[in-house]
Amino acid sequence: MSNRTMAAGNWKMNTTPTEGKALAASIIAGAGTPGTKVIFGVPAIQLMQIKELTANAEGYYVAAQNMHQEDKGAYTGELSAAMLADAGIEYVILGHSERRDYFHEDDTLINAKIRKAIAAGIKPIYCCGEKLDVREAGNQEVKVGKQIEAALFGLSPKEMEQVVIAYEPVWAIGTGVTASPQQAQDMHAYIRTMIENQFGDSIAQNTSILYGGSVKPANADELFAMADVDGGLVGGASLSAENFVPVIKALG
Ligand code: PGA
């Protein structure tokens, strides 16, 4: 069975609400009813607006880019899982390398966020990936394996069924350098085997493993052709319909 299920855009800290509304509308107009799930990972201030825009657009969903691990309380500036769930937000991106680097998030914290999201009915898109020095030393599987184990292995099978994984080699994010299709496939297959060993074949086969890192129209076809690449988490190329629509269409 093919898991080619998801084109997720990560807008990061880009687009004003006015621009975001126009961007989402132009992507929906261009891609129509997509053959795959399309996720808009938008800035917090736009969550409800984009949710409203996608409410009647079949196949489109909204993701937050972060979430706090506590239920509520004195955490100025943060959003809780309950807030996202009440606003109808379906997904949350967790563990992105920018959150790890700039906001010092580690896998223990990310694990707590993942559990909280799932408990609230929100599907986490868990990001993992190695930096360039790790890849150059040939230690990428050890590194990513540790991230997967620390963030996901404590979940119950029922919880794991809710998780989407995004493999994003840090050296490929926003750099224009993409992992080769074979490098992506090798890591995705490794991750799927880890999930299989821990949670069994059925969960492993049904877990979507997205590739992220300079995905664009020119490389989407060859990346998505790989057996274990189930879709993409797309940053820069998700910021225009001109680039994101062909990526969506490359998934069917
Ligand atoms: P990029 O970002 O497509 O601009 O490399 C991907 C990501 O950070 O999710």
Tell me what the structure shows.
The protein is 45% helix and 15% strand. It is built from twelve helices and eight strands. Helix 5 (107-119) crosses helix 7 and helix 7 packs parallel to helix 9 (181-199). The protein is globular, with a radius of gyration of 17 Å. The mean pLDDT is 96. The structure holds 2-phosphoglycolic acid (PGA).
Shape: globular
Q: What's the pLDDT, averaged over the residues?
A: 96
Q: How many β-strand runs?
A: 8
Low-pLDDT residue spans: none
Number of helices: 12
Helical fraction: 40-55%
Report the radius of gyration as a whole number of Å. 17 Å
Bound molecules: 2-phosphoglycolic acid
Main pleated sheet: 8 strands, parallel, barrel
Quickly give the structural class: alpha/beta
Give short descriptive properties of this protein.
single chain, 252 residues, alpha/beta, 45% helix, binds 2-phosphoglycolic acid
Q: Would you kindly provide a brief summary of this structure?
A:
The protein has 12 helices and 8 strands. It has helices at 17-31, 47-54, 81-86, 97-102, 107-119, 132-136, 140-152, 157-160, 181-199, 201-206, 217-224, 241-250, and strands at 6-10, 37-41, 60-64, 91-94, 123-128, 164-167, 209-212, 231-234. Helix 1 (17-31) crosses helix 12, helix 5 (107-119) crosses helix 7 (140-152) and helix 11 (217-224) runs parallel beside helix 12.
